[in-house]
Amino acid sequence: MKICVIGNSQVGALLSGYKLLPEIKVHADFMGIGGGGGPYLEVENGTIVVPEKAELSSEVAGLDRLDLGEYDAVLLSGVGAYAMRENLENFSSMVHVHGFISDDKIRQCEYVVTKSLYKDALKDHVKLLNCNLNIARVRSIFNGHIFLQMFPMPTPSVLDQLDFPFVYEKEELGRFLIWYNQILSNECIIIAEENNAKLISYSDLFFKNGFTQSKYSTEDAWHMNPLFGKLFWEQFARLYL
Amino acid sequence: MKSEGYPQLEDVVTDELSVLDIMIYKCINGCYMIKIWTKLKKIMNKPEVKSKPEHPYADLSMKAFWRTAIADQPPNNLISFWNPKFNIQKKDSIVTFGSCFAQNIGRELCARGYNWHIEERLPQSINSDIRRHYNYDSFSVRTGNIYTTSLLRQWLSWALNNSTMSQEVWTDGCRFFDPFRPRIAPNGFESEVEMLQSRKVTLSKLLTCIKSADIFVFTLGLTECWRNTDGYEYPMCPGTVEGSFDSSRHFFKNLDYHEVFAGLESSIAMIRSINANVKVLLTVSPVPLTATMSGKHVLEATTYSKSILRAVVGDLASSSDYIDYFPSYELANWPCARRNIFNENLRTVSSSGVSFIMDHFFSGIGDDAISNMGEDSKFIVRSPVEGDNGEECDDALLEAFSKDLK
User: What's the pTM?
Assistant: First the structure.
């Protein structure tokens, strides 16, 4: 299978994991463009315009367009909703949710909302992100398989990050992430079905108590290491090769 | 612009033009011609030699006489209608609470660049439809409509002491509803805990917003209310929107003057105990009762209810230099204006009615700027549903449940 992997910074873990699997029966080219909600993919005549800031893997380096007609499949990496960081303006980095936070901490929160409201806002948020709009854009020029890889949940070290925007304790955050991931997965499945794409669900090997397991962590709790990428490709191979 | 039946500018004789210059001063809505005519008429009728006043009425200004203040006025402008007791400036932190009409005040304040303070809010990145759907941006905190002074007192006492808060929860078997703001969460809450926690957030925000407020605006709506045998008051009769009616626990109460007065007086005392510098601006909602349980005709019941509210705010406002009254009720119900003020249902206030009322408010505080409500406003007013100006009126739901209307 020849596959074109396109996405945001989440492409990094997939590329480094792919390199750890020389025997895998997939030929993959990679294009990553940094920026959590993106990238914005411009499609034209069956090709994807390579943005100026794009990082390309060796076999496609230097191209100004990726011709999807040369691939059996496209894997869109980093769909769903991006990292929660204090400096980001998106609502999910600002809002706490009832049911995951104790009474005594509520007064420390500027925004606390019900689960229903959060769910509605998250669905609305997801619909507007380029990383998800790209699914329809790619489908408009490509008839082959489209696979989707969601943003992973953070590792537990997120609690120690300077830009961690919440007052949740670890156990509270874990429960929240399980719930959050479920909503996101459901939304991604809906978008996938609308575009005849397939969401690659993470198996239990990736997560523990709501978090991505610490062994996959980099210095940044929202970006994973090569082991994570390797595990992803192994799961992909098991399901689709 | 020519107005049927009014003298036109070209009719004025040349030697009166110097007088005209003095007479032309800015009117609400930018209308100059009508003002000129009004003044001219007065001058034309004025005796050449002013006689010495022979009684106390002789020297009163135009606004004191029905003919000059009302009958001779064009239908969209009352001169010198309201002179506020205290300054209201754009930088002042203004918080708004009360019946559904109060929602218009907040939005108009915001649209004209005033500091309408919303303490319980959502990030702007959440779209306005969702914010409105979940009843954000209606009042300064999510109390929902507070129709009576006793309900205001109840909210304030809970905010000051959470332990006095009712623990009552309504459920339909799946979702949970707050009896004291039954429509605040469109499909109810997921659990009893979520509902109570959400109310505690509101109470906490209520305290915070009063602490930082310069002006507390409260619109009185009703005297009729429903209470339970534990002594708590509901904004809506149980069973009409959510919950179920239990005649052994729930009873009707029509507050009299003394009860309304006591409710408002103690509410203001609590507000001032939180913030000793806050000023209070009271209004009476012009919106008639949707339904009455008093046994009277709804028109008579409305008059009774509004009369009491109006009398109470008048008495309280005249008793203190930090309490003022803005006569929104009078503006909506003066004989000439009424046809334009209300929607076809003769109950809800039309968009033009809101503008008319609020134009007089802003004119009173010395701001004749045109409302910026619309594209640039951060609050997008929804398309009016039939007879609706965008405000959420819980009591309007009663109409939908009225057997006679089915």
Answer: 0.83
